[in-house]
Write a structure and sequence with these properties.
Blueprint lengths: L1 H13 L3 H4 L4 H36 L3 H19 L10 H7 L6 H9 L7 H6 L6 H9 L6 H10 L1 H26 L1 H8 L10 H25 L22 H17 L6 H7 L3 E2 L2 E2 H17 L5 H7 L1 H26 L12
Antiparallel strand pairs: 1-2
């Protein structure tokens, strides 16, 4: 009996708000997240993927510097809007999500596919290749040069029509996958998401899974998106390596991380509707004498501000301003602690992720 009492006491500290949580409208929060965050962000991505696909078609019709710049800008916009969706990197959708972005692009495979003239380079072919040979990272490989040399890019596309064919197929495939994910979130995935309304202590509940997704995204930013190029990912990491930055060719790594965090903030606040912040407030969760929700929002905003203040692309800053990048990484780590420890404990959620690929 004494042992049972001790276990009960321990659980009361680890899961202080489970009883209270029964009175919070979790299903209403999940419905609001679908309606106000998940679906709108995927609608935006579909629009941006369509714009990118059209820009690539225009580049094919007229391979000019003007059309290349338009395609590059369309890619940056699509990359940013996708970055806001990945906080919902749901295991339910992970296979199709990887078709959109599974960095880094495997450029050797891509080049081999192009070289083999037996391959018919269309959207059907792209659908059958591995995730690292398609999606946004693969498109970046074709339309960006780390040195920013438009003529080099255009010459490569014009000199080898099969490169252009592969690029056009990538754009078509990307739009197909973007539309598929949106349809899923408008239907069965949304139903499953809301239907998995259970206490956070249930590992397969949506509350638990989204909390895990938030923590996994944040750890991925700290360890992979920043730590790898900075050289702090492992104890025996070499010197900073700019090519490890997720979008080193386009110099868009920083903006992608910023939009990851914008997506995280909207997931947490419910885009100013019902969100995890309201759940924590309902539970009277505190951190150092203030509401835990306010502390988390403030840390997200502080991290975004630190990234916006970075005057160089991340791929350059890791070499020329490593202390500044390290300070940004520390901001992300502080956010991770708030999510993985403080928020998870208040919600009674077990953090189960062990995959730090960033998305």
């Amino acid at each position: 009996m004494k042992r049972l009492i001790i276990i009960a006491i321990i659980l009361s500290f680890l899961l202080p708000n489970v009883a209270l949580a029964q009175d919070f409208d979790r299903m209403g929060m999940l419905e609001s997240l679908v309606e106000n965050v998940i679906v709108p962000k995927h609608e935006t991505f579909v629009t941006d993927a369509a714009t990118l696909e059209a820009a690539l078609q225009a580049l094919d019709a007229e391979p000019s510097a003007v059309n290349l710049l338009a395609a590059q800008e369309a890619w940056r916009i699509a990359w940013a809007s996708w970055a806001e969706t990945v906080v919902f990197s749901s295991r339910r959708l992970q296979i199709v999500q990887n078709q959109v972005s599974k960095p880094p692009a495997n450029t050797e495979f891509i080049d081999d596919f192009i070289l083999d003239e037996e391959n018919i380079l269309d959207a059907d072919f792209i659908a059958g290749v591995g995730s690292t040979s398609k999606g946004l990272p693969a498109i970046e490989y074709f339309i960006f040069d780390p040195q920013g040399d438009a003529q080099t890019i255009l010459a490569a596309l014009q000199d080898n029509p099969r490169r252009m064919a592969y690029l056009i197929a990538l754009g078509e495939s990307l739009l197909d996958n973007a539309e598929e994910i949106l349809v899923m979130w408008q239907g069965t995935s949304a139903e499953d998401f809301v239907g998995a309304d259970q206490a956070g202590t249930v590992l397969r509940s949506s509350i638990s899974m989204v909390t895990n997704d938030m923590a996994a995204l944040t750890e991925g930013i700290a360890q992979m998106k920043i730590g790898l190029p900075l050289g702090t990912r492992f104890d025996n990491d070499p010197d900073p390596d700019p090519t490890e930055a997720e979008a080193f060719r386009s110099r868009a790594s920083t903006i992608q991380i910023i939009h990851n965090l914008i997506g995280l903030r909207d997931a947490f606040t419910g885009a100013e509707e019902i969100g995890f912040d309201d759940y924590l407030d309902f539970l009277a969760a505190e951190y150092n004498g203030e509401q835990l929700s306010d502390a988390i929002i403030a840390q997200i905003d502080a991290t975004i501000t630190s990234l916006q203040a970075l005057e160089q692309p991340l791929a350059i800053a890791v070499v020329e301003s490593p202390d500044t990048v390290l300070a940004i990484q520390n901001e992300v780590t502080q956010l991770l602690i708030l999510l993985r420890v403080d928020m998870a404990n208040q919600l009674g959620v077990t953090i189960t992720f062990n995959d730090n690929d960033g998305d």
